[in-house]
């Protein structure tokens, strides 16, 4: 008796579910073409598509890509772009495994063997065509400090390296004083904060120290911090710690330094102190050497640049794409989105997020490369 | 002391048509409800055991290749450089930080937690007991990230001068020697963990103290004991196994706490000198794994972190086993 009642209930539930799913599939099939029509009519600049685009990778470009996504989706309401900031390594891995349509990375695909694999070759194999590195966002790294009474501070690579290596331990050290004539430096001990997680910011900052002050910075460069100090979790962690500690100093992306209203050191590259601005950071990118060929725009930044007015500590994040997608539809989607991302409209907005827009000459090359994606 | 349940008068009577009377065990078998319930209970038990074993197997299988490649001693090395051509990693630092911070948390939270439980069950006026108990339980429901934020923003500035004072006055003692780490020290983490696990200790201790037989308490009072003597001779011995298991549950939580610790802790730079000081930084197993989860770029590196996770798993297992042994032995004395 009770058994038959249960089975009757089950049958009703099952048929209900079937009916519902039938409704649902009907709905999607009717609405999609209608939605397509309206969005195509409503937009002028972007080549809209409908459907999903998936990307994953560097967390350093998260805010920038969010800005681009919101601009794109405002124009194209049917497009759904998803970017997961899981880290550069994870992004490249997912890209090679074809789980995502493009990857965001803090460094270009490696062309030499590492851990038994060559990233660029694996990516090309997975794409069936060469994979391109397209620089899209540049993130200046600030040397942010918190010293009571010191509003302007000039450092050079050598002194910075000694501070972050624990060789200079007080703020009124003669080496710092020599660069800051006329500034009263207190005898506060220096507290260095570093990123305790592995990060592209650490990698770029140590690359800068190594390139610009090879005698003072003798450690390996890498995602893991090798200097001295006190480790804090992620950018937010080091920024908060520096803000809460008199005598604190750290390296952090510009946006975090700004949001925590930390003071930023000017860098003396040998041609006078340079303040960190979007323009001064862009200048360093513009002088970078292109190591990729053709539309592969992998860059080699000259951290030791002596170019007047160029701020040398910058991070370039790339979008890693297939030059020719196996599925032409995907190619179109990636192209459409990256056209928006590299557009002057989006790039000029990035300044507010603490990034620097691509300098004009690099932006032109990126646009050409994006147009060539198929 | 043991009583037999499930025996009723019908079991003892001869059955109809001359069938033998039902014995206590046979009475319950063969009925659908008993079979389903018994089967479901057994299944649940087996699933839990299988699940824990599978987790252990997963950890071991993932960790072995990395451990085989490790060129440093896994237990005594302070280096942590997994991945790469020649991985070198050891867990000594994490083990020290994890164990000392958790021990400190226990030293603070157990006496306070037991005190709170005694107050609620023995001293508080009747109208206050329920609201006070509810408030303590509410503490247990606060997400750990909130403790992390609170610790970072509110508690840390308050704690810094305290730490400075202790380093100044007690710095001669190795456990309190100054290290130059400003916030996020083992001591600080221990205090925050203590606050986090306090409700666990309190809630469970309260339950067992409440179960103290009235006859024990009244007996003690009748013999002329003061309230404190009554608690000492009747309530505390009765509640001891409960307090111990509460503490072990709390210790398990403290050992494995991830988010709040990751948020607060100050990691040490490579090659910092070894010190016994509680005012040093350091990372716990859980915070180290959580902080670097985004960069598990190859199996060898992932394996190293999983090996660290395995040590935490074993550590928690050992702690719980010791607790079980202690409780079993105490039971023999109290009954």
Briefly say what this structure is.
The complex is a heterodimer of chains A (374) and B (335). With 374 residues, chain A is of the alpha/beta class. Helix content of chain A is 42%, strand content 18%.
Provide structural commentary.
The complex is a heterodimer of chains A (374) and B (335). Chain A has helices at 2-42, 62-75, 88-96, 119-127, 157-164, 174-179, 200-212, 234-243, 254-259, 278-286, 328-342, 344-349, 360-371, and strands at residues 51-57, 79-84, 102-105, 131-146, 154-155, 191-195, 230-232, 248-253, 263-264, 266-268, 273-274, 289-290, 299-300, 314-322. Chain A folds into 2 domains: 3-139 and 288-301 and 317-372, D-Maltodextrin-Binding Protein, domain 2, CATH 3.40.190.10; 140-282, Periplasmic binding protein-like II (D-Maltodextrin-Binding Protein, domain 2). Chain A is built from 13 helices and 14 strands. Chain A is of the alpha/beta class and 374 residues long. The model of chain A is unreliable at 9-44 (pLDDT under 50). In chain A, strands 1, 2, 3, 4, 6, 7, 8, 9 and 14 form a 9-stranded mixed sheet that branches. In chain A, strands 5-10-11 form a 3-stranded mixed sheet. Chain A has a two-stranded antiparallel ribbon with strand order 12-13. Helices cover 42% and strands 18% of the residues of chain A. Chain B has 335 residues and is an all-alpha fold. Chain B is 70% helix and 2% strand. Chain B is built from 12 helices and 3 strands. Chain B has helices at 9-12, 24-28, 32-69, 92-123, 126-140, 144-170, 186-210, 214-222, 227-256, 259-264, 285-292, 299-334; strands at 80-81, 88-89, 267-268. Chain B has a two-stranded antiparallel ribbon with strand order 1-2. In chain B, α11 (285-292) packs antiparallel against α12 (299-334). The longest helix of chain B is centred in the first third of the chain and has 38 residues, at 32-69. Chain B is globular and about 75 Å long. The model of chain B has no long low-confidence stretch (mean pLDDT 85). The chains are: A alpha/beta (374), B mainly alpha (335). Chain B: It is a multi-pass membrane protein. Chain B: Pfam families: BPD_transp_1 (PF00528). Chain B: InterPro entries: MetI-like, MetI-like_sf, Phosphate_PstC, Phosphate_Transport_Permease.
């Amino acid at each position: 008796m009770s058994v038959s009642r249960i089975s009757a209930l089950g049958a009703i539930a099952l048929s209900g579910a079937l009916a519902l799913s039938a409704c649902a599939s009907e709905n999607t099939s009717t609405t999609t073409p209608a939605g397509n029509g309206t969005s195509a009519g409503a937009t002028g600049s972007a080549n809209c598509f409908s459907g999903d685009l998936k990307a994953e990778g560097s967390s350093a470009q998260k805010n920038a890509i969010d800005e681009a996504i919101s601009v794109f989706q405002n124009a194209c309401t049917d497009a759904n772009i998803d970017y997961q900031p899981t880290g550069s390594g994870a992004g490249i891995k997912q890209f090679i495994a074809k789980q995502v349509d493009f990857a965001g990375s803090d460094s270009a695909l490696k062309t030499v063997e590492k851990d038994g694999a060559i990233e660029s070759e694996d990516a090309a194999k997975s794409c069936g065509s060469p994979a391109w590195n397209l620089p899209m966002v540049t993130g200046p790294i600030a040397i942010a400090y918190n010293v009571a009474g010191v509003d302007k501070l000039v450092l050079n690579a050598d002194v910075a390296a000694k501070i972050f290596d624990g060789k200079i331990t007080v703020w009124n050290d003669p080496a710092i004083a020599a660069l800051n004539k006329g500034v009263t430096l207190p005898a506060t001990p220096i507290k260095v904060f570093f990123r305790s997680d592995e990060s592209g910011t650490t990698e770029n900052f140590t690359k800068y120290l190594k390139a610009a002050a090879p005698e003072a910075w003798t450690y390996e460069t890498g995602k893991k911090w090798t200097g001295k100090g006190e480790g804090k979790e992620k950018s937010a962690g080091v920024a908060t710690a520096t803000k809460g500690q008199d005598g604190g100093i750290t390296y952090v992306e510009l946006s975090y330094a700004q949001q925590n209203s930390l003071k930023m050191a000017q860098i003396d590259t040998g041609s006078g102190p340079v303040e960190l601005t979007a323009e001064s950071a862009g200048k360093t990118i513009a002088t970078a050497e292109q190591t990729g060929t053709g539309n592969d725009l992998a860059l080699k930044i000259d951290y030791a640049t002596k170019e007047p007015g160029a701020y040398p500590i910058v991070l370039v994040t790339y979008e890693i794409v297939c030059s020719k997608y196996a599925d032409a539809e995907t190619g179109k989607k990636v192209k459409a989105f990256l056209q928006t991302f590299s557009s002057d409209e989006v790039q000029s907005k990035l300044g507010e997020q603490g990034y620097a827009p691509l300098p004009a000459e690099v932006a032109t090359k990126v646009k050409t490369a994006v147009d060539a994606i198929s | 002391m043991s009583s037999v349940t499930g025996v009723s008068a019908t079991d003892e009577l001869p059955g109809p048509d001359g069938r033998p009377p039902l014995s206590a065990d046979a009475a319950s078998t063969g009925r659908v409800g008993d079979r389903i319930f018994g089967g479901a209970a057994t299944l649940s038990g087996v699933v839990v055991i299988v699940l824990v074993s599978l987790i252990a197997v997963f950890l071991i299988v993932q960790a072995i290749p990395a451990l085989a490649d490790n060129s440093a001693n896994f237990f005594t090395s302070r280096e942590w450089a997994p991945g790469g051509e020649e991985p070198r990693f050891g867990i000594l630092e994490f083990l020290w930080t994890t164990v000392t911070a958790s021990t400190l948390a226990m030293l603070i939270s157990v006496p306070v937690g037991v005190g709170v439980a005694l107050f609620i069950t023995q001293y508080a006026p009747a109208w206050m007991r329920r609201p006070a108990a509810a408030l303590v339980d509410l503490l247990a429901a606060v997400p750990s990230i909130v403790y992390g934020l609170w610790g970072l923003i509110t508690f840390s500035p308050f704690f810094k001068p305290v730490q400075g004072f202790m380093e100044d006055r007690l710095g001669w003692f190795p456990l309190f020697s100054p290290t130059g780490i400003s916030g996020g020290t083992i001591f600080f983490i221990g205090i925050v963990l203590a606050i986090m696990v306090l409700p666990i200790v309190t809630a469970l201790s309260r339950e067992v103290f409440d179960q103290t037989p009235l006859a024990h308490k009244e007996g003690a009072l009748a013999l002329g004991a003061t309230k404190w003597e009554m608690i000492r001779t009747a309530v505390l011995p009765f509640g001891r196994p409960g307090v111990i298991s509460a503490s072990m549950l709390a210790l398990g939580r403290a050992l494995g706490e991830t988010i709040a610790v990751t948020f607060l802790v100050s990691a040490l730079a490579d090659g910092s000198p070894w010190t016994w000081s509680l005012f040093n930084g350091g990372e716990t197993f859980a915070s180290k794994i959580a902080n670097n989860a985004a960069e598990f770029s190859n199996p060898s590196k992932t394996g190293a972190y999983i090996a660290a996770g395995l040590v935490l798993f074993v550590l928690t297992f050992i702690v719980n086993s010791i607790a079980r042994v202690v409780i079993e032995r105490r039971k023999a004395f109290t009954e």
